[in-house]
Specification:
By secondary structure, the chain is α/β, with parallel strands linked by helices. The protein is built from four helices and six strands, in the order βαββαβααββ.
């Protein structure tokens, strides 16, 4: 399953994503990965959550980022949840078509590997492609 937290930059998406991480951690049997553009929120996460700081990796394209996600999944078959903060920046996405295409690919990863994704996107709900509207769990 893919869930989206959406809203303009600075509206509090990261706070909602961190709260979601805390909420999910309570009932988690496997592991959780939180992917962010830096390690600023390291101390806001439970120590059991693996934080991946994307500033340590040099991504050149959206496809590279999606391949990176597959690599993360392949390294640990126990992952139940992956939370992606600053998705558009980390995935190097700059247009609506790329958003929809990337979310479709992530949905396939979710189904195939039984991993849930919660993704923050710096766009208002009405700016997203229509087909993503049913995935929005928080709109700020």
């Amino acid at each position: 399953m893919v869930s989206l937290i959406v809203g303009a930059k600075g509206k509090g998406k990261t706070k909602h994503l961190l709260n979601k991480a805390t909420e999910l951690q309570k009932d988690l049997k496997g592991s959780m990965v939180y992917i962010d553009k830096n390690n600023k929120h390291m101390y806001d996460l439970d120590s059991k959550v693996r934080l991946i700081d994307m500033s340590e990796f040099s991504m050149q394209s959206t496809d590279e980022f999606l391949g990176f996600i597959c690599g993360v999944i392949s390294q640990n078959s126990d992952i139940e949840e992956i939370l992606l903060d600053s998705f558009l920046d980390n995935a190097l996405i700059d247009d609506d078509e790329e958003i929809a295409t990337s979310i479709d690919k992530i949905e396939k990863y979710s189904d195939k590997y039984d991993v849930n994704f919660v993704i923050s996107i710096s766009r208002n709900k009405d700016e997203l492609p229509r087909k993503l509207a049913d995935k929005v769990i928080v709109a700020l």
